[in-house]
């Protein structure tokens, strides 16, 4: 067996998910801003509503902390790049050594969710539900996912 095959087999096939309450972390937003890159701080400053700013800062800071822990660097030093659809990925050369950390962030209303794995690409989506509308997961998925994502 090749070393690449044995390395792949030793990587846990696990997807980790973590949820954060915006209300519980709102008081931490000023401290969390400190681990963001200058462009992210500027973006956070352009949000009109405090709740929108808090969701962005909490999500970005927590994913930065996760990646910083993996790379063993300060959170502020983590460099991201984006796919053409805007999904973040690690741009640091160090991230190419060993298993690749894949992650995704989603937020809606009072919740921020992170998903991460070494098993392969991951995605997560959290959506607010209006109780007056359909509760069918199929209907909800059709309203927020592309045909490919629904499949």
Number of strands: 5
Distance between the ends: 34 Å
Percent strand equals 15-25%
Low-confidence parts: 1-6
Q: How much helix, percentage-wise, in residues?
A: 25-40%
Q: Averaging pLDDT over every residue, what do you get?
A: 83
Rg result: 17 Å
Largest sheet: 3 strands, antiparallel
Q: Which strands sit side by side, in order, in the main sheet?
A: 1-5-4
Q: Assign the structural class, choosing from mainly alpha, mainly beta, alpha/beta, alpha+beta, or little secondary structure.
A: alpha+beta
The ordered H/E elements are HEHHHHEEEEHH
Shape: globular
Number of helices: 7
Please explain how this structure is put together:
There is one protein chain. The chain has 151 residues and is an alpha+beta fold. Helices cover 39% and strands 18% of the residues. The chain contains 7 helices and 5 strands, in the order αβααααββββαα. The strands form 2 sheets. It has a 3-stranded antiparallel sheet with strand order 1-5-4. Strands 2-3 form a two-stranded antiparallel ribbon. A hairpin with a 2-residue loop joins β4 and β5. The protein is globular, with a radius of gyration of 17 Å. The N terminus is likely disordered.
């Amino acid at each position: 067996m090749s070393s690449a095959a044995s390395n792949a087999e030793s990587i846990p096939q696990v997807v980790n998910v973590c949820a954060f309450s915006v209300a519980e972390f709102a008081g931490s937003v000023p401290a969390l801003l400190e681990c963001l890159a200058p462009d992210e701080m500027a973006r956070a400053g352009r949000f009109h509503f405090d709740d929108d700013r808090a969701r962005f800062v909490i999500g970005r800071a927590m994913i930065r902390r996760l990646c910083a822990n993996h790379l063993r660097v300060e959170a502020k030093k983590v460099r991201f790049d984006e796919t053409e659809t805007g999904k973040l990925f690690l741009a640091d050369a160090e991230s190419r050594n060993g298993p690749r950390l894949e992650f995704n962030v989603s937020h809606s209303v009072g919740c921020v969710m992170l998903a991460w794995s070494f098993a392969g690409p991951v995605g997560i989506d959290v959506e607010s539900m209006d109780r007056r509308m359909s509760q069918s997961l199929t209907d909800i998925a059709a309203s927020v996912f592309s045909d490919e994502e629904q499949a």
